[in-house]
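Structure representation.

___
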Amino acid sequence: MSRPWSLRRRLTVRVMALVLGGWLATVALAAVVLRHEMNEMFDTELSALVETTVLLLDSAPSGTIPRALGIETTDGERVLRLLAPDRVAAAAPWPALTRDGLHDAPGWRILRQTTEGTVIEAAHATTWRREEMLEVAAAFLFLALPLIALLLWGLRGIVAGATAPVARLAQAVAARAPDDGAPSGVTDTPQEMQPLVQALDAYLARISDLRQSERAFIANAAHELRTPLATMRNRLTLSSDAQAQAAISTLDALTRRVERLLQLSRLEAGLGLGRGPADLLQILRLLRDDLGPGARDLIWLDDGDLDALPVAADPDALAILLRNLIENALDHGSGTVRITLGHAGDLVLENPADHPRLPANRHSPGTVSRSALSRGAGLGLTIIRDLAAAMQVPLVETVAPDRVVFTLKFKPVPGG
């Protein structure tokens, strides 16, 4: 799997590389120009030295030379030689020259000039010239590097500011609820990002319309089925036919599925967003009594000696959640359903379950899934999970070898 790349990082690196490349090219060009200009300056210095020596010779008494022949600086990097016809000059560190002008010899740059029979040679060692140019270049770099660092820091901030709308759009999308189909609401975007925002808003609008149509279809279909199912059940109840009586249980299961479709439609429409309070213990007792004697005998409620347990939840949504939780346990379990309440708002529901009837989901270890042998269409578990998420109630599903445990953590309301 390839590593995800960052637009900001890539843009920053490329802009910095471009700036550094341009700066290095400028430095290289500046070095060439600097070398040329400093060589001209050094040549001018040699010329000035020779001209000054000529003036000194012209002003000296006849027959005298004001300086000794073959004088050198103590470091041997700059040399001035005076060659008179009647005197023997010291050996020069460069080959003998036969004509006036500027000359390049190995390790030296020499200017030769003849005046009234006296030859004047002034020279610079090329190593000395190179050292001088390196010192000037080092001083230039010493002054330029802080400016380059400041420029790079500024470029990074500019790139971060330029890409900030992308980060704001990502944060706005990430902060949205899963069922939020409203437009993104991001307006302060650059021109290049406006098509993306418009396409995103159009996509969200299409998804919202599709979800609304789906909810309307489910609600209408469920409503249309309730009356025929109730009529059919009444007729079967009045019939003495054994097959008709056997079909009543199947019809009841179908009725429960229709009711769950209606509940799912209400959940999609925003059920469960109220904050109550609701008495968790009272609703549990009402649901247990409403399920009938057969189901009531399979439910064991441990109320923890509580008289009431008010929690922050919508009463209608809480009743639907608990009914589906209990009916799901009765449908898929194989024994007594045990419900335990805690003073902190915890509700733990557990019941024995055989693996062939209620296996663990292979794709999501530790969660519950419907087996082929269990009754129902799986809507109950879907409603439980979705409604718990809508109510912001943590739900923990645990599958053990011989039992299934659901744990809901409600937020108690003090003094409710």
Observations:
- The chain is about 55% helix and 15% strand.
- The mean pLDDT is 76.
